[in-house]
């Protein structure tokens, strides 16, 4: 709901541009900023005037040849001579301290010739002569040797900073820029403005409680978290959540974006971090919020080129975070949509030790978000926001806010007083088209495949003896890569697994692919990770656990350092022949095939449930453990 600038504003601006400005106006508008120009102009003028006055005598001089000059000396016309390097002056009066102003004296000027008889001639005639070191025009000299180079340097310097752009300006006006670090008061946002991110909300409400009642936690001996990192794809409401925290905590809120710290000049970002924390400590209890933390928090390890400025800024941040303890009442919130590129040092205990996932909303969450954003929008009676939520799978809060706004605009365009359902569907189409172009949405056909795939995993898990119970099924895509997931949670810590349990695990992994196969008679690439894991289990059963028929109780590989990746592990040695390798390959294929058969069979037996659960999953997008068990009839 951006407010557009009214068009007449623009015209006004143009008009005033054309108006002649008064001198003071020009001054106020900073037209005199380049005062160096005026300074230079004044200097040049002064110099010229000075030269003119000084050389007025020269203008009255009669320039004559040296031989004429000599003749005039000989006949006594010239009574006094001044000798300089470049010229000789001859005066018709001997006494006057001639300045040339009186005009009483005639002056002759000539260019000297190396004539050794000239000085004896002067002596002979008794003519007063003096050698004069010509006075240099002082001002001009000063101008040329000092002011001009300095001026040029100054202009060049200005130009450089103009080129660097605002960054240079910022660095120069760093002191003034601190206004950015000034704490915000109430943001006017609270948790009721955020919907769908319930887990994140719960976590952050706790943070607010820390700030309000620190004693409650400290008296028990609990530690208040120093840093909370909000992680989630763009538009899920991370910034909004942080503002909500500030809005309800009633403490000062320092907000900066990671990009604000990244400067052209080494050290500026670090200084800014220092400044930020200094102010925060003075104002404690308070909240520091660093949005887009990845801008400074990028891992130093795999940077292609090292960036001193960013590294210094990051180091300063780490130092500052270590520098205060939990009792100081400063809590640092940060947000990022790329946690994987963050420097591991940031995530260590005592820094951002709490990570809060701000997930994409499910259908119910989307409905709640739509309600929030259409609070002030007049909705027609035919609008069912539940329906709208169902039409917008995969969308985040920002997209939904956009849809409500678009729908309102469309209603206005169509001359309606209230938003109609058709406005909403048109708006959704428009937004979907945009998102599809950006490849951010999953099309309905694929969603169905994903729903069956995940239901397949869950169903097999539920029907397999000893498999970990399913706690959550989701087809809300999570960042890049994962299109959906089925969570299983072991009921207790397990250190040993029986052969049957391993096989059960393989079955669950194959369940996704098998469900796709059974329902659509087509298989997709979505199962590749499942297959890798299933195959690894079978291979380990054969080579490490001695669970194959031919090599029962035989370990075919020697286990070395188990913390190393087997691919790079020099201690993981193959201790078997080519023939055994062949057997292993065949056996892996045989086991997988037989398990797959079994899984397909189970799915066929329970196909009613499979279809029912997948249908509900498509609708709700997320099934919690209880809902899932209820659907299973348990
Ligand atoms: P992020 O910082 O995660 O990229 P924002 O907080 O900037 O996302 O969200 C952009 C806008 O989208 C918010 O100002 C708000 O209007 C809307 N929005 C996003 N998520 C939610 C949500 N969970 N509930 C309500 N509105 C949301
Ligand atoms: Mg944000
Ligand atoms: Zn899977």
Indicate the topology.
Blueprint: H1 7-18, H2 23-28, H3 35-54, H4 56-60, E1 62-63, H5 66-74, E2 80-83, E3 88-91, E4 107-110, H6 118-125, E5 128-131, H7 138-164, H8 166-172, H9 174-177, H10 198-212, H11 214-220, E6 227-231, H12 238-249, E7 253-257, H13 258-261, H14 268-283, E8 286-291, H15 294-297, H16 308-322, E9 330-336, E10 354-357, H17 363-373, H18 385-390, H19 397-413, H20 421-437, H21 444-463, E11 470-474, E12 485-488, H22 499-520, H23 528-543, E13 557-558, E14 573-574, H24 578-605, H25 607-620, E15 622-624, H26 625-632
Parallel strand pairs: 1-4, 2-5, 6-9, 6-10, 7-8, 8-9
Antiparallel strand pairs: 2-3, 3-4, 11-12, 11-15, 13-14
Helix pairs in contact: 3-7, 10-11, 10-12, 14-16, 17-19, 19-20, 21-22, 21-25, 22-23, 22-24, 23-24
The structure holds adenosine-5'-diphosphate, magnesium ion (MG) and zinc ion.
Residues 238-239, 291, 335 line the site of magnesium ion.
Description:
This protein is of the alpha/beta class and 634 residues long. It folds into four domains: 61-131, Signal recognition particle alu RNA binding heterodimer, srp9/1 (2-Layer Sandwich); 180-357, 3-Layer(aba) Sandwich (Rossmann fold); 363-433, Orthogonal Bundle (Helicase, Ruva Protein, domain 3), CATH 1.10.8; 444-632, Peptidase M41 (Methane Monooxygenase Hydroxylase, Chain G, domain 1, Up-down Bundle), CATH 1.20.58. 52% of the residues lie in helices and 10% in strands. It contains 26 helices and 15 strands. A five-stranded mixed sheet has the order 1-4-3-2-5. Helix 22 runs antiparallel to helix 23. The protein is elongated. The two termini are 48 Å apart. 31% of the residues are buried. Mean pLDDT is 81; it is low at 1-32 and 166-179. Bound molecules: adenosine-5'-diphosphate (ADP), magnesium ion and zinc ion. The site of adenosine-5'-diphosphate has 18 residues, from helix 12, helix 17 and helix 19.
């Amino acid at each position: 709901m951006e407010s557009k600038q009214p068009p007449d504003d623009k015209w006004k601006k143009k008009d005033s541009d054309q108006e002649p400005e008064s001198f003071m106006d020009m001054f106020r508008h900073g037209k005199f900023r380049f005062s160096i120009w005026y300074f230079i102009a004044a200097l040049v003028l002064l110099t010229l005037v000075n030269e003119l006055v000084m050389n007025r005598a020269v203008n009255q001089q009669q320039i004559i040849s040296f031989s004429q000059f000599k003749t005039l000396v000989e006949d006594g016309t010239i009574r006094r001579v001044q000798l300089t390097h470049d010229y000789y002056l001859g005066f018709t009066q001997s006494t006057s301290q001639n300045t040339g102003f009186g005009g009483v004296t005639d002056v002759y000027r000539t260019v000297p010739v190396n004539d050794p008889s000239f000085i004896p001639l002067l002596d002979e005639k008794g003519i007063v002569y003096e050698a004069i070191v010509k006075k240099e025009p002082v001002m001009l000299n000063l101008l040329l040797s000092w002011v001009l180079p300095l001026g040029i340097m100054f202009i060049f310097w200005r130009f450089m900073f103009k080129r660097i752009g605002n960054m240079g300006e910022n660095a120069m006006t760093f002191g003034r820029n601190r206004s950015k670090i000034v704490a915000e008061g109430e943001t006017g946002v609270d948790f009721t403005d955020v919907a769908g991110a319930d887990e994140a909300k719960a976590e952050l409400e706790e943070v607010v409680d820390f700030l309000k009642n620190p004693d409650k936690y400290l008296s028990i001996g609990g530690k208040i978290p120093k840093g909370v990192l909000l992680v989630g794809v763009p538009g899920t409401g991370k910034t909004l959540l942080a503002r909500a925290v500030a809005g309800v905590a009633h403490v000062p809120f320092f907000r900066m974006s990671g990009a604000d710290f990244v400067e052209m000049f080494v050290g500026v970002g670090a200084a800014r971090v220092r400044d930020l924390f200094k102010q925060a400590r003075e104002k404690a209890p308070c909240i520091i919020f660093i949005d887009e933390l990845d801008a400074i928090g990028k891992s130093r390890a795999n940077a292609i080129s090292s960036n001193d400025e960013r590294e210094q800024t990051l180091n300063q941040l780490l130092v500052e975070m270590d520098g205060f303890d939990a009792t100081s009442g400063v809590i640092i919130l940060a947000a990022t949509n790329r946690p994987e590129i963050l420097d591991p040092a940031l995530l260590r205990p005592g820094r951002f030790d709490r990570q809060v996932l701000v997930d994409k909303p499910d259908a119910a969450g989307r409905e709640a978000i739509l309600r929030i954003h259409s609070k002030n929008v007049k909705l027609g009676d035919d609008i069912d926001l539940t329906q709208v939520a169902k039409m917008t799978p995969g969308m985040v809060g920002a997209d939904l806010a956009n849809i409500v706004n678009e729908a309102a605009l469309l209603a206005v365009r169509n001359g309606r007083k209230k938003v109609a359902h058709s406005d909403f569907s048109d708006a959704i189409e428009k937004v979907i088209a945009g998102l599809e172009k950006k490849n951010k949405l999953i099309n309905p056909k694929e969603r169905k495949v994903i729903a069956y795939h995940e239901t397949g995993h869950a169903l097999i898990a539920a029907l397999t003896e000893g498999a970990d119970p399913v706690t959550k099924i989701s087809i809300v895509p999570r960042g890049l890569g994962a299109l959906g997931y089925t969570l299983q949670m072991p009921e207790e810590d397990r250190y040993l697994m029986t052969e049957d349990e391993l096989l059960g695990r393989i079955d669950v992994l194959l369940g996704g692919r098998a469900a796709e196969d059974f329902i659509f008679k087509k298989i997709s690439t979505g199962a590749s990770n499942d297959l890798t894991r299933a195959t690894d289990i079978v291979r380990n059963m054969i080579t490490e656990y001695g669970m194959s028929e031919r090599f029962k109780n035989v370990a075919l590989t020697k286990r070395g350092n188990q913390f190393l990746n087997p691919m790079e592990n020099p201690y993981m040695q193959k201790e078997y022949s080519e023939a055994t390798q062949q057997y292993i390959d065949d056996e892996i294929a045989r086991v997988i095939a037989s398990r797959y058969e079994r899984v397909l069979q189970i799915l066929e037996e329970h196909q009613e449930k499979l279809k029912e659960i997948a249908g509900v999953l498509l609708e709700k997008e997320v099934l919690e453990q209880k809902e899932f068990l209820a659907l299973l009839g348990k």
